[in-house]
Design goal:
Layout (H helix, E strand, L loop, with lengths): L1 H7 L3 E4 L4 E7 L22 E13 L4 E6 L11 E3 L6 E4 L5 H7 L4 E7 L6 E8 L7 E4 L2 E4 H4 L2 E5 L12 E6 L6 E24 L5 E12 L5 E10 L9 H13 L41 H4 L33 E6 L2 E6 L3 E3 L3 E14 L1 E8 L4 E11 L13 E9 L2 E10 L7 E5 L7 E9 L6 E10 L5 E7 L5 E4 L6 E3 L2 E8 L3 E11 L7
Length: about 550
């Protein structure tokens, strides 16, 4: 009891913001290469990636037991991941009760507040005192007029509170208990933690020359944050590559979702709605009738349900008339361009670091150049894969090798590429396709959305002699177009078949035979081989 009392009486020291911040973005590993981040400002769905944040804070504390409040951490912090270096700590707690409509109404339940509204007759402002009788989900006030159900009363404009409750903060806060052995003095802390609700993607723009021989490529890194916290002058990086991360089980996800729905201070629940049944008899309710229609009182401020958005709930920086305390401004999504990011190796992954410090706004996106403009040399190719007894993956692609000779020679993070073609009539769009992760030296196929209709891959089979386990296969590539094309077929053995006795010499790539041929306009080319069925295996 004495220890608990000492903890309650421990002085509180606030670190309002870090002196230095570094943030590294990690992509959502479950999102496919061609899928985009969901940065719809009206959506509450969290981003599937995460970030590693490192903060340096300087704070002076008295000796002995102290409660140290670290304000301005990421709202999506994983509290159990938080590590504090250069200091001995006890208990750590993440304070989720942010300053909000719900928090204020909860904190002042049973207490007197000031009500400012418009006179229903004259429209002039009226100020009167009242007492909050109920929770925000069904706000009820007691005033000189009597007891009012605010959701249905319709004329309430603004509640004015006498102050900010001590347990509410405008910023996500991590509280740390320093033990009685704390010597006090000026501390320099290093806080490292993981936080969800971040993501990033690579976006490319490619323009083919008029003759189709080269592709001018520019590339952008798009960083997305749906967190409520704004990070200023941060060292920003992003990790590309396949990063293994153990996800929660289905049971853990269901429990987390249930806890989030039940928590009134979860990010999706802190706003207060103002809804009630339409006035009149319940039997007379109309389908799709508005739930709440305030009476017109002239030029008034927004009703209480719209007065405050979530603290730090939207992205900041430019494009708005008035910013909130966290730098947010409504539903704005701010896109800023910067110069190139520098690339380095982190094991098998690639680290891209912005060349200068940058702000990451709450609920915002930022675009950064991560490769210089390049002119790439490749070839147009029709290709397919023969998988034992059928033709698969027939595509029309622009192919190059990721090396210096082709004009590239740098890792390509997965993402999307918007393709254009220079013509005599100007620059025309071709389409948008996915780009897979490609290391230096790998083959890069940029699959084109159109252009393969005039080329066909087909096969014919002739069974071998009676009782034999093989068949003769003829594979034909036909070009019905007006210009010659280059075609390629990769032959893949399977567990059921093996291929042999090809009628032409083949190249070998990654352990597989590859047939490459030029097919003139309105012509066809053939290759013959034997397909042998393997005996069935017995799995033990």
């Amino acid at each position: 009891m004495l220890a608990a009392l000492a903890l309650m009486l421990a002085p509180i020291v606030v670190s309002a913001a870090p002196q230095d911040t570094a943030i590294t973005f990690y992509r959502d590993s479950a999102r496919a290469a061609g899928d985009v981040m969901d940065m719809d400002p009206g959506s509450d769905e969290p981003l599937g990636g995460y970030a590693l944040l490192e903060e340096v804070r300087e704070v002076a504390v008295p000796a002995g037991a102290v409660t140290l409040r670290l304000e301005g951490v990421a709202g999506g912090i994983v509290p159990q991941s938080a590590l504090l270096y250069d200091i001995t700590t006890g208990e750590k707690n993440f304070d989720a009760r942010l300053l909000s409509q719900r928090g204020l109404i909860d904190a002042f339940a049973g207490q007197r507040v000031t009500i400012r509204r418009a006179d229903p007759v004259t429209g002039k402002p009226l100020v009167e005192a009242g007492t909050i009788l109920s929770a925000p989900d069904a706000l009820v006030l007691k005033t000189a007029r009597g007891v009012e159900a605010v959701q249905c009363e319709g004329s309430l404009n603004t509640l004015l509170f006498p102050g900010r409750p001590a347990d509410l903060t405008a910023k996500p806060t991590l509280s740390v208990e320093l033990p009685a052995s704390n010597p006090g003095g000026k501390l320099r802390l290093r806080l490292v933690y993981l936080a969800g609700n971040f993501d990033w993607q690579a976006d490319y723009v490619g323009t083919f020359s008029a003759d189709g021989r080269t592709l001018a490529l520019s590339s952008w890194m798009t960083l997305g944050s749906r967190d409520r916290t704004r990070f200023e002058a941060a060292q920003v990086s992003a990790i590309a590559g396949v990063i293994g991360r153990v996800g929660p089980t289905d049971e853990e996800e269901e429990a987390e979702e249930a806890a989030r729905e039940a928590d009134p201070y979860a990010p999706g629940n802190i706003d207060v709605s103002a809804e009630c049944w339409p006035m009149g008899r319940t039997a007379a309710a109309r389908v799709n009738a508005p739930l709440f229609t305030p009476r017109p009182f002239g030029d008034l401020e927004a009703p209480i349900a719209l007065r405050m958005s979530r603290w730090g709930g939207f992205g900041g920086g430019g494009g708005c008339d008035e910013e909130d305390e966290e730098g947010g401004c409504g539903d704005a999504i701010v896109v800023t361009g910067m110069r190139r990011a520098d690339q380095s190796d982190v094991g098998d992954a690639k680290l891209y670091t912005l060349g200068r410090r940058s702000d990451i706004g709450a609920r915002s996106i930022k675009q950064v150049r991560f490769l210089d403009d390049r002119v790439l040399k490749g070839e147009f190719l029709h290709h397919a894969t023969y998988r034992g007894d059928y033709i698969d993956d027939q595509k029309f692609s622009y192919r190059l090798i990721n090396d210096k000779a082709s004009g590239l020679g740098e890792p390509l993070p997965r993402g999307r590429i918007a393709l254009f073609q220079n013509t005599q009539l100007g620059r025309h769009p071709i389409g948008e396709v996915a780009v897979k992760e490609k290391a230096v030296g790998e083959r890069v196929d940029i699959d084109l959305p159109d252009g393969g209709d005039d080329v066909d891959f087909d096969q014919d089979e002739d069974d071998g002699p009676d009782g034999s386990n093989w068949a003769r296969v003829t594979l034909t590539v036909r070009n019905d177009g007006e210009t010659p094309i280059t075609a390629e077929v990769e032959f893949a053995d399977t567990n059921e078949h093996t291929l042999s006795r090809f009628s032409q010499a083949l190249a070998l790539r990654d352990g597989r035979p590859v047939w490459r041929v030029v097919v003139p306009a309105d012509k066809e080319r053939r290759i013959r081989f034997r397909r042998t069925e393997l005996p069935e295996r017995e799995d033990y």
